[in-house]
Design goal:
The complex is a heterodimer of chains A (796) and B (55). Chain A has 796 residues and is an all-alpha fold. Chain A contains 31 helices and six strands. In chain A, the strands form three sheets. Chain A has a two-stranded antiparallel ribbon. Chain A has a two-stranded antiparallel sheet with strand order 2-3. In chain A, strands 4-5 form a two-stranded antiparallel sheet. Chain B is 73% helix and 0% strand. Chain B contains three helices and no strands. The chains are: A mainly alpha (796), B mainly alpha (55). At the A-B interface, helix 2, helix 7, helix 8, helix 9 and strand 6 of A face helix 1, helix 2 and helix 3 of B.
Chain lengths: 796, 55
């Protein structure tokens, strides 16, 4: 590498090829993800666009859209930005070209695997964590490759001090690994199916701890690192306040992880957790806006260029959207606001203002800045880039405004009551659907405009790169001695500042939690610790700040401290809930295990992605209780692996739908929703009437459920299958009587069994009815219908 | 029953722990940022602006 340079310097050639590859990938997958997004947005206005096929329904494509945008579009952009900026900030080529190549192609293969499996209905049924377990393992392995390559690069760095962008990257790599592994703990039942080890309320908490922090540590912290590198580069001036960026980093990293429960407000989640989630979400206002202002003020003095330079336009708009989204997020985390916004399009608008405005525009700005430098050519058409900006801006505004109006309309209509709050003002759920349909048109139009902008960008980048002779950049540096400021792991963690801080925390906890004399002693302990720290510093004359300064130049102890900061919040919230035994989580309500057929039907419910439009959680709100019945208790879903509380109600809640309608209602509703519910946007699930149930998978699935603690009685494989068949025959017989003949082994029968079970504590009702049929001979079918109507619906 | 079990006293303290830890993190990082020498700040904030070469 050392050619024709001064003898005291070494030349470092950057690996820009990998950055080019990730840039191209982000454009391709961005277009794919947005195209699917426009399609599913249009499906909400025109149900016909579900095309009557299983693989193109909203329920199966929505996970494809979210996964494509988060992990394919933003993921590839993140890798491009991290690899480009890290090499330059630490003055070192990436640790391994081989690992870089494995990283790139491995990630693309994962995306392709996701694009194939999700439309096929192979899913885990947890939002943003739908990919099946073999792909989960691949993701974890490739993430490790990324981590090894990144930290290997830090290890060979020529710049000892770590710039704040590197801190954000470190936090990202560590935290995403922790989140991903914990939320994907599962036991496989086959090569394509598994049950998560957490169930019910535990699963809900772990899922939204993951879901919220996927936003935080996949869509935010790496983007902030990219902002802190690329915005100063584009503006040609340093970040407004480096000091502010330090506070920004530690506050964001520490606070974000606690805020997950704000996705579960007014649900069966314990109140203390809801309050904790809300309070920490509100506290996020400060660091988020600190970071936003730091980014925007970096542009001071160059605002005249913002008018003409697309890169700066995109960056300025992206940071502004970051500020808006991080204002709106805490706002929606206030319990009373959340009562209106949750389960409605308002939340969808919020995430899209962040994804399209913050992530999308930051990507566009970064790519427009990078392309001329990576391909050594002027951008083909700055005018087209400006056109992209305005197409995108109008698209976002249309989309977000439509979702705000739609969401608030839905929230108000569905919660409105009259006659002193005793009667629903809009008892028909479909009124909220039909009232907001025109806004779905506007939403699809906004998304389409945004997609057009990115297509324009793809063309612009292609024309710039086509035929270019690519050459990687390099720098010449004087080698530094890395040992100069070395700080081992032991010295990094066990030193006076850390130990005094630890002592202070322990005494403060004792003071706050104990009573009487121990509490008083802890107060004195706190005072003594503080005084001891001052005395220690005075006596030794030691500069404690030196430890911190050296910490910034030592990646390992820095990473360990970051991990601790991140884990504290997660452990504090999740551990107490996990430690509760399932028997104790009753809250006056319990759950019987599903019958084999009901379990099979539940797996179909998950497979079809019903949770994308239907919740199973009646909140502690008047509107919910009046519409759906008594509010849901934690104990009612304790054996649900995975939980299906949902996050959006395009259709009504199903927590207590069991026995609300006869079997034949569900049969016709699934076959042709509009025959039963005029105005519904639900896809037709006609194939469920012809597809066969594969009961032979049930023994393995029930075996795994048993291992997870679901109290199934020991039984042979044959008897499990026989149970399912017997229950299916009873339902099929009932359907036949009511004019909907169908074979007992069709999927619709299993799904009906599951739906009729929802909200009941009485176990296996239809099996009991089947026994009645058997004992009563020919008239049993009639008797079964009568008996089925008597099955007690749970009322706490 | 559930609420009684979940809202045990030791769990109430988690909110308190959260507040205390955040205050500590915020104050410490704020102090450190404020005390960072100007020369170090200048060096750090100029890192992204260093020139590179192209062949």
């Amino acid at each position: 590498m050392e050619t024709g340079i001064r003898s005291d310097r070494v030349r470092i050639d950057y690996n820009d090829k990998i950055v080019r590859q990730f840039c191209v990938a982000t454009l391709i997958w961005g277009v794919v993800g947005m195209l699917v997004g426009v399609l599913i947005a249009t499906q909400l206005a025109f149900w016909q666009l579900n095309f009557g096929t299983s693989w193109a329904t909203f329920g199966r494509l929505r996970p494809l859209h979210t996964n494509a945008v988060i992990f394919a579009f933003v993921g590839n952009m993140m890798f491009a930005g991290v690899y480009y900026s890290t090499q330059r900030l630490v003055k070192a080529r990436l640790a391994s070209d081989f690992l870089s190549t494995i990283h790139f192609w491995g990630w693309q293969l994962i995306i392709v695997a996701a694009a194939i499996t999700l439309p096929l209905g192979l899913t885990r049924g947890k939002e943003y964590a739908e990919l099946i377990w073999p792909i989960n393992i691949a993701v974890a392995l490739i993430w490790v490759v990324f981590g090894v390559n990144f930290f290997g690069t830090l290890r060979r760095r020529q710049e000892q001090t770590l710039y704040v962008a590197i801190w954000f990257y470190i936090a990202t790599i560590i935290t995403v690994a922790v989140l991903y592994i914990v939320n994907h703990l599962q036991i496989p039942t086959s090569w394509t199916h598994a049950y998560p080890i957490f169930g019910g309320i535990q699963d809900a908490l772990v899922q939204w701890w993951y879901g919220h922090n996927a936003v935080a540590f996949f869509l935010t912290t790496p983007m902030l690192g990219i902002m802190y590198y690329f915005v100063p580069k584009a503006a040609g001036r340093p970040v407004y306040s480096y000091r502010l960026s330090i506070v920004h980093f530690w506050s964001i990293v520490f606070l974000y992880i606690w805020a997950g429960p704000h996705h579960l407000l007014n649900t069966a989640l314990p109140n203390w957790l809801q309050s904790l989630g809300m309070i920490f979400s509100l506290m996020l206002w400060a660091p988020s806006w600190g970071g936003m202002l730091n980014g925007l003020l970096t542009l001071r003095g160059v605002w005249n260029r913002v008018r003409t330079e697309p890169v700066l336009q995109f960056f300025a708009a992206a940071i502004t959207f970051y500020g808006m989204a991080t204002f709106e997020g805490p706002l929606l985390s206030i319990k009373s606001v959340n009562a209106l916004s949750h389960y409605t399009d308002w939340t969808i608008g919020h995430v899209h203002s962040a994804a399209l405005g913050w992530n999308g525009f930051l990507t566009a700005g970064m790519v427009y800045w990078l392309v001329p430098r990576l391909w050594k050519r002027e951008l083909h058409s700055p005018a087209a880039a400006q056109m992209h900006f305005w197409l995108g801006m109008v698209g976002i505004l249309l989309y977000v405004a439509a979702m705000w109006v739609s969401g608030i309309t839905q929230g108000l209509m569905l919660s409105a009551t009259k006659e002193g709050g005793s009667v629903l003002a809009n008892p028909n759920f479909l009124d909220a659907v039909t009232s907001t349909r025109w806004l779905m048109h506007l939403r699809a139009t906004g998304g389409f405009l945004y997609l057009c902008g990115f297509l324009l960008m793809g063309w612009n980048v292609f024309r710039t790169a086509y035929g270019a002779e690519v050459r990687d950049s390099y720098i010449e540096v004087v080698p530094t001695k890395s040992a100069e400021r070395a700080l081992g792991l032991c010295l990094g963690l066990f030193n006076a500042p850390v130990l005094y801080s630890l002592g202070l925390i322990i005494f403060a906890l004792g003071w706050g939690t104990l009573d009487g004399l121990p509490s008083g002693l802890c107060l004195w302990g706190m005072i003594a610790t503080v005084m001891g720290a001052f005395l220690h510093q005075e006596l030794t004359g030691g500069r404690w700040s030196d430890w911190y300064d050296r910490l910034l130049a030592n990646a390992l102890p820095f990473s360990v401290l970051t991990t601790i900061a991140v884990l504290i919040g997660g452990v504090s919230q999740i551990l107490p809930t996990i430690l509760m035994s399932k028997e104790r989580i009753t809250e006056g309500a319990g759950q019987e295990p599903y019958s084999p057929l009901q379990l099979y039907g539940r797996d179909l419910y998950v497979k079809e992605g019903c949770y994308n439009c239907h919740s199973q959680m009646i909140r502690t709100l008047a509107g919910d209780v009046l519409r759906y019945g008594p509010y849901s208790k934690a104990g009612e879903s304790v054996y649900d692996h995975p939980f299906q509380w949902g996050s959006k109600r395009t259709g009504p809640d199903l927590a207590r739908v069991g026995s609300k309608y006869p079997n034949v209602w569900h049969y016709h509703h699934m076959r042709d929703p509009r025959q039963i519910s005029p105005g519904s946007t639900m896809p037709s699930y006609a194939w469920l009437l012809t597809e066969r149930s594969e009961f032979e998978v049930l023994p393995a699935r029930i075996g795994v459920q048993r291992r997870l603690g679901v109290p199934y009685e020991a039984s042979s494989d044959a008897s499990i299958i026989a149970d399912a068949q017997k229950e299916a025959e009873a339902i099929a017989a009932d359907l036949a009587v009511t004019g909907a003949p169908v074979a007992a082994d069709r999927q619709i029968v299993a799904l009906i069994a599951y739906l009729q079970r929802l909200g009941k504590v009485t176990a296996h009702p239809v099996v009991a009815v089947a026994e009645a049929i058997k004992s009563e001979g020919g008239d049993g079918v009639k008797a079964a219908s009568v008996e089925a109507s008597k099955v007690e619906t749970y009322v706490p | 029953m559930f609420r009684r079990l979940i809202i045990e006293d030791w769990q109430r303290t988690l909110s308190l722990v959260g507040w205390m830890l955040f205050a500590l993190v915020f104050v410490t990082s704020g102090l450190r940022a404020f005390l960072l020498p100007r020369t170090e700040v200048k060096k750090l904030e100029d890192l992204p602006l260093e020139k590179e070469f192209h062949e």
